[in-house]
Amino acid sequence: MSELLSVEHLSIGIRSRPRRPWLLAVEDIRLRVRTGEIVGIVGESGCGKSLTALALMGLLPPGIEVVAGSISYAGQRLDRARPRELNQIRGKDIAIVFQDPMTSLNPLLRIGTQVAEPLLLHGWHDAAKVRERVLEILTKVGLPQPEELLRAYPHQLSGGMLQRVMIATAIICKPRLLIADEPTTALDVTTQAQILQLLRHINRVQDTSILFISHDLGVINQICDRLLVMYAGSFVERGPVTSIFWHPVHEYTKGLLGSIPTRHSKGSPLANIPGRVPAVGEKTAGCAFAPRCPRASALCFSERPPELDLSETHSVKCFLNDLESEMEYARI
Ligand SMILES: Nc1ncnc2c1ncn2[C@@H]1O[C@H](COP(=O)(O)OP(=O)(O)O)[C@@H](O)[C@H]1O
Ligand SMILES: [Mg+2]
Known about the structure:
By secondary structure, the protein is α/β, with parallel strands linked by helices. It has helices spanning 49-57, 83-89, 101-104, 111-121, 127-140, 146-151, 159-171, 189-206, 217-223, 241-246, 251-258, 298-302, 323-331; strands at 3-14, 23-34, 38-42, 64-73, 76-77, 94-97, 177-181, 209-214, 226-231, 234-240, 307-309, 315-317. The protein is built from 13 helices and twelve strands. Strands 6-7-8-3-9-10-12-11 form an eight-stranded mixed β-sheet, sandwiched between helices. Strands 2-1-4-5 form a four-stranded antiparallel β-sheet, with helices on one face. 40% of the residues are buried.
């Protein structure tokens, strides 16, 4: 598998006014996605998952910027790309699907027009061919009666259908990397399962890599190969999904596993980890998770923990105060 996306030491800063100091919302993250791979990012709301996704697409809002590090796609530096170059890559090579289709789709435009837009932006001029491709993609994502859908407006469709339309729009130019930011969070469980199945199908048939973002480890488990656990702007644990599920090491990962949230608990604190994610600018000198961690020592409050390799593929950012069990794991 060749490397498609490579993010090194990426930090994202927020400031309320020019010349104010940057407050780091994402701090020194490293991320790699290879061709054909599905990589997950999981963490509670407010951990910096969406800002990371937006930074990869060059879509950060005003007042939020990449302040350090690099983003490379197929060897090309995206963080230094000019807007015209980014427009070429966006939609065609890298595409994104957001959580809420209603806020991404234009309520005044017909579905056919919206799905066709990336083709028009990337140089398709023949109306008959565009129509043919749009019908093909709508069928591919499992939408019935695509001919009629072309003329429909977003409000006439269910949430699940709208998310399929969003996915169709994202994959119509056959991107090599699809970023899916909580693509199933707004959907009921049955529809969620169908969308996950569709994403897996796209991954298998088109060899599209997927960066799958969710607050729900239960969902991540169903679709991802590798996983990054994000807390307060940092990746605190990374590894193959199976390793993390069988041997979670960071207390935050354990907490997420112990309270796989339901739709009803969305946004509420985790059942077995008291406290909440610190706001941007609230972080202290030590480990951001220390105030919520049952194993925290004085050191955890004063110094940033190192990243320790537990195996060739599994690592954790922690001082591992109760070393024994983790050392045993490392010897396996
Ligand atoms: N437009 C914005 N202006 C100011 N702060 C923001 C903005 N967007 C996000 N943030 C802050 O950045 C942090 C990370 O947000 P986000 O990436 O949306 O988290 P997640 O997607 O993991 O829920 C949060 O503390 C959030 O309040
Ligand atoms: Mg988000």
